[in-house]
Batch of 3 targets.
Target 1
Amino acid sequence: MENFFLSYNLSWTLSKTLPYLLILVGGVFLSYFYYKKVKKLTFLRFIIWIIPFAIYFILNPIYEGDFSNSFRNLKLKNAFIQSEKNQLIVITIPGCPYCMASIQTIKNIKKRVPNLNVKYVICSSDSSSTDIYKKEINGAFPINIATNAQFYANLTMGRFPSFMLVSNSSAQIWSNDAFGSLAKDNVESYFKSLN
């Protein structure tokens, strides 16, 4: 359901929240029709109200980071900011399933905000480690081996993938579990403001 709402250009936060609200409202209607039909206030009425939500929640649980926007402000040298400004940098490592999963999320953001300037940076010295990323990214955005892997690893504090938004004068960085719907809305809003 979330993808349905995203396809209508609703925010990431609203698209994440609406399905749960609609399921709750649907449960209320089911409970009401049960009451109208049977005319009894029973425990079954409560069960009918809560079951649709419980099933949806079991299939699509809410995790702590789903609505997160917990970023750190970074103090970077001005030369780095100037060379990377107005860019989202996704910092990854080889063999990381969460890093691979982030590709679809970034593709979805790029679809919604075509002027998204993004690149993937892999912290590795092995140039063949880009192969699996290149295949999945399929030319949608650039991918590079980090020229200074230790620098990027220090920025991420060892948490991969990490998402770094470099603006005109500063940078914000999110770890994977902090890059929730509010963070995605934040990134989209930033690039929309550049138009």
Target 2
Amino acid sequence: MRDQDRWEVLGRLAESQAGYVTVAQAEKAGFHRNTLRQQTHEGGRLRRAGRGLYRLRFYPGSPFEQVAAAWVLAGPDRAVVSHESALELYGLSDVAPAAVDLTLPRDSRSRRAPSGVRFHHPRIPLRSDEVRQVHGMRVTSPERTIVDALESGTQPDQIEAAIRQALEQGITTAGRLRNAVAHRPLSLRASIDRSLAAP
């Protein structure tokens, strides 16, 4: 494969991952680690974004780069941004997550989350209709995000604000929120109902 073709492959992959690629992905596209390191020097196409992670130098910046980097390192085909991190990506409430929240399949429970990242492994896997593309990342749906954040202990006033804002923005409905919590504990259903009834 020609050098230009390799860069096109890597560029398309990075664009699908908010500008990031892992060393393993770059090697699979035909790049040697030395080439990656050389491309981080002045005039190069990459910048180092962390251990085993690079970012296209000219890819537009984002206020969510820390979230995107954690998501790509965790495996963008398996990881989904969730809980308070997803609230932040949707612009719901003014919660400030203490760590990047990522939901992963239960078979990856043996993996330890790196510093600044929280892994969640739900008993019931995410359905395809519970995942959206937001800011170039796979993110839980607004309904799933709100319910997961509530269940994991996000402050009730933040949940109320998130619900109010999601309804005002038209990214969810009361019916979809009630459906999302239908098979969760009674206390969660009651909390969602209270928030929906709040003026």
Target 3
Amino acid sequence: MLLMDEIITGFRLAYGGAQEYYGVKADLATYSKVVGAGLPLGIIAGTDEVMDRLGSTGDPALDFKERVYYGGTFNGSVPAMAVGIAVLSYLKDHPEIYDKLNATGEKIRRCLREVVAEEDYPVTIVGEGSLFMARFVQGEVKSARDLANENVAALRGLYPYLAKYGVFIPHVHFAVISAAHGDEDVELISQAYRQAFHDLRATKLI
């Protein structure tokens, strides 16, 4: 079975998530964040064959042998479901939103790479679509192995400096942009990273 964690990528990289974006199909996938728009909402989705294992046969003894138990504290929450339907309906009716999101994300990554190159900082900018992140390694990052020797002190030190210059990103987390972000935000973000990298070098973290 191919399992995909689409908690962050689902309905963000594309309406069909990372599966559509990369041209693959998972047997089982999980979704949350974008769909819930801040409300507690999680989704398990899969092929008929896989999802059938979650359904009850009505016979407890048979279910114990042949079915997989699952539960959720907020299962069937009416407000969360209403929000989820509204979000997905809007995204389905406005597919152009993904072109804007991904173009803005690519522009931010390009600008940040220019900032890194200006002062030859030991940083690699990673991300895809509307996701971006600075990692304190040099060279291409293709897997967790490429981050084995990362300058973790610099990574942790980055986020307070970014907040100081007006850009809040959850600690050691991918930055995610929305359709509300535009060129002015790209410039603000780029300048915040420029100042943050400068401060990290001044404090000898990089």
